[in-house]
Fold:
Amino acid sequence: MPEERIYVIPLREAKKVPRQKRTSRAVKIVHKFLRRHMKSEKIKLDQALNRKLWERGAKHPRPRIRVRAVKQDDGSVEAFLAE
Structure:
């Protein structure tokens, strides 16, 4: 039976890198957060979630994002935009 959780992931840490790399760092932060909290190495982001992260370009990522994470029976995790 799949396990489902909703998280608000802070992305402020992405502001500590050069401006051109901020949103790519934010994507890595989402992966790292889900790996830690869902106890899985297989993380897959939904296309809508990825678009929301990149919506404001590479230089200005949002400060936080709300994510719905679903852990499948095989241990993989799929992350969706929660709204």
Q: What stands out?
A: DSSP finds two helices and four strands in the chain. The first strand starts at residue 3 and ends at 10. Strands lie at 3-10, 43-45, 64-71, 77-81. Helices lie at 22-38, 47-54.
